[in-house]
Each structure stands twice: as C-alpha cells, then as structure tokens.
Amino acid sequence: MATDGPSADSAGVTTTRKTFALLEALRDEEGCTITELTARTSLTKSTVYRHLQTLTELGYVIERDDGYYLSFRFLQLSETPRTRTPGYTAAKRTVFELGEETDERAVFIVEENYEAVYIHRYGSLSDTMIGKRRPLHSMASGKVILAEWDDDAVAAFLEATELEQLTENTITDPDDLYAELETVRERGYAVNDQEHMDGLRGVAVPVYTPDDELLGSLGVFGPTTRLPDEYVHGELPNRLWDKAGEIKVTLAYGE
Amino acid sequence: MATDGPSADSAGVTTTRKTFALLEALRDEEGCTITELTARTSLTKSTVYRHLQTLTELGYVIERDDGYYLSFRFLQLSETPRTRTPGYTAAKRTVFELGEETDERAVFIVEENYEAVYIHRYGSLSDTMIGKRRPLHSMASGKVILAEWDDDAVAAFLEATELEQLTENTITDPDDLYAELETVRERGYAVNDQEHMDGLRGVAVPVYTPDDELLGSLGVFGPTTRLPDEYVHGELPNRLWDKAGEIKVTLAYGE
DNA sequence: GATAGTGTTTTGCTATCCGGAACATTGATG
DNA sequence: CATCAATGTTCCGGATAGCAAAACACTATC
C-alpha cells in the first residue's frame, strides 16, 4: 500500500495526487495488474486504467503481458538532481573505491527536507538503498550534516521533526543532540553507534567543495563486529577524510 | 522547451500530462521561477503554481529562494526499474571496473520501447548519460540487443521505427541491418564504427543471466584515435566477454 | 458450452481544474 | 519616503475534464 497517496484532506491538484499514488504503488511492487493496483490504491478500476494509459503514452509506465512496470524514463527525472553538481558525480566514483577498499558498505548522503537521502551507495546486490530516506539524527552522515548548521537551523529542524527512537542508543533528547553535534564538530567526523539499527555502526565525514561549501557526507557502515572502536575512531575517519579530500581535488583540478 | 509535453491531440488524463510537462521542463533546467516555467511550458501561471504546490507537497519538487528543483525522491521511482533484477546492480560495479581498466567510457545499456537506455555509465563528471535514450541501430549496444531478437521481432522494430541517419556510416537500409545483425551474431560482439557520432567508436557484447536470458549490453566507447581496429576486434571484445562472464558468475554464485 | 475473472469502453454527472483577474509582495529607483 | 514594475499568490465562476459505475469484451478454465 503506497504510503504517500492522496488524502481527502490535502489541497492541490487531486488528479496529480492520484497519478503519484499509482506510481508509488508500482514503486513498491512492480508487475501489478489493474486489479492489484486498484486494491493497493484507493482508486477505482477505471481511474487506475485511465491513469495507466496516460502514463504509458507519456512513456513513464510500461505495459507487459503480466502487468505494469515503471519505465527507465524516471532516470531522466532523477539524474537531474543527482547530477545537479559535478560533486555528486565525483562522489559516486569515490563511494565505489571506498567500498572496495574497506570491503564495507560505503555511502554518499545528502539532506533534503530534513531527511538523509542515499545518493550513492556501494554494497549488496539486493537493496541498493539509493533514494531511500532516513532520519538525520540517527545516522553518522546525518549528524555530520546537522553539525554544519548553526544552532538556529538545528532548532528549526528540531521544531519540524521528531527525534524518533529507533534503538536504545538513539539520541532523542535535543540537548543530547546539541552536545553530540558539538562533539562531531570537534572531531571532524560522526559515529553512529547502533543508534539507527542494532548491530550496525557507521562513521561519516563531511565532503566540501573547493569553495568549502558542504557537498554532502561520505560514510562507511557495517556490523559492530567488523567496526570496533579503534577502527571507528582511528583508521576509518582518516581514510574517509582522505577520500573526501580526493573529491575536493577532483572538483578543483578535474579528472 | 520540454519536448514530451501534453499535446492537444492526445487522449488520457490531461491534468497528468500538464504535471509531466512541468516536471520535464524542470528536468531540462533546474532552478526555474514560476514565470520561467510558464514560458517554457504552454501552461498558464496559475496552473504552473498550482501544480508546483502539489508536487512540492508530495515531495517531488523542492522550492528554494531562487526557484524550483526536482527532488531526490524521483530516485525512488527510478531505482525500482534499475534494481528490477540483481543483474542490473551487478552490472553497475562491472561498468566501473571496466571503465577503470580500459580508461574509456564504459556503459551498461538495455532496451525499452525500441530505444537504447543508458542504465549505468562510467565516464566524465559532466554528462553521465544515465537515463538518456538513443537509437538502437546506430549503437554497438543496440545492435547487440537487436541481434538477440528473431527476425519477426526485428521486423516489428523496423515497422515501428525509422533507421535515422546520424552520420555517413549509419545503417539506414533494413537489409544492411539484417546483415549486420548476422555479423554480430557470428562474432558475438558488435562495433559502432562512427555510426552514431563522427569520431566515436564503440564495442559491445551481450550480458546473459545464469539462465542464459539477455540481461543487457556491456560496452566501451571512445574516440577512434584510441580505439583502432586491432583493439576493437581483438583485446576489447575479449575483455568485455570476461566482464560479462563475471556478471553471470556473480549472479550465479553471489558476491 | 458456461462461468468467473480481468481488462476495456461507455456514459451521465458534477466536482475539479482551469485561466483570467485581482491582490500581495519584493526589489529597484528617484 | 513614494512609485513602479515584476513576480508570486489567491480568488472565483464556469465548463469541461475526470470520475465512478455499469456495461461490454476477452480470456482461461472446466
């Protein structure tokens, strides 16, 4: 069931909301029939059919014998933000190298609408996580990004969001978060110590452009058994700083 | 000016077409103001405003001081097809390795609606090409894919499309294409010899799943000066076969 | 052949979307 | 400060586009 579907209480263009409810149902499960999409959305059969026909004509949905699929044409819409700045493209290559060198999951994450968004990721073949959104406060990468903001900006974030408790370790008290961000600023890196998911640790550093603007956050995560304290506070941040510096150099001097 | 916008002659849900006209205008140029989008689309100012507000509420568009931007949320829609099969994810890593090893542009391409679509690419920081669509007949990767089809399927393709002439070398005669596909089948690889763009050569091979289904096409391309005949017909296809085989093995036995 | 399930088309109704106009805001200029 | 132009935001009445329900067509199964 698509979670971002149209709501009767929402303003705006209702037809557009219905279209996206349908697209999100397909996002969550491809190859659905019209009957299945009717069940997954709160739309009627003929509305589903009509929207699908339109989306198919526009090239955003593919109809096959067994059902409907999202088209690769959405790549054109997603690559526009993902290549918004050459830094994002440079980070892609770095994430790959980092993943290979550490033999762990490597990620490049940015913030959008107060959420951490996976832009690039090196890891398993199954779930690429790209495009997925996570709370800023419970991730090393998110904390790195928050640490770049002044207190007013962090206060606005706290006003607009809730410090959701995901594990026993998750920071849920604003004062604790301010203190943690201060630690991140001093250290130059952030650690997620099972704050997002039990058994998982992560380290992240900020990535700056040659103009010293924050580009995003470069991070590595893995099971606690493979990321002990000495590594998390020693070699790993060092390696991440090196890699972040490589991105900066690539941007300053070209490939 | 968005090229896939709504047309007065089209059937279907007109409101949805207007929404996508707007999204495509933003795809082509980000950071536009309402006035600019009104000029770029044939929509009126209040329609533009209304749709943008809806898209912003849905999280697909971001409003900033200087204009409107596409959200990373589109990654969620594009990653669904791009991770439709683990083979595509495996191909991503291989494309990177291939690009690094050859020091050329490396690509993984699939077919959708009779067009070649760049799914993964290793190359310059500027234009990543991902999501872009190209004619099948003028690309090595496209010819590899066409060579996998039987004559009926190729005939249907020829019926539905036009063999557009892009360079002097482009194949524009159906009989020539059939002959070329036969050559591709015999050789096991395809060459694009300045058929798509003057000065550019490419080589591509098919990538198969462990079930021997066609996954897509793995290719390398670069300027003719760097891709001479001996390389194009010798070491390069060999390397591509090796890499394609690696994908197959990865899929068969895991990472 | 009959039947159930699913996809496609039809159709009348009305609410939604639209576009034009009014209004609000902002920045620049004198 | 006042004025003005440009741009963004809201309002509003009308009509048509979108809707949902129903009818119809198609397919697979027994």
Automatic annotation (TrEMBL), chains A, B:
Protein name, UniProt field: IclR family transcriptional regulator
Entry coiled-coil feature ranges: none
Record-annotated HTH iclR-type domain positions: 13-72
SMART domains listed in its UniProt record: HTH_ICLR
Keywords for the protein's UniProt record, in alphabetical order: DNA-binding, Transcription, Transcription regulation
Domain IclR-ED: 73-253
Keyword Cell inner membrane: no
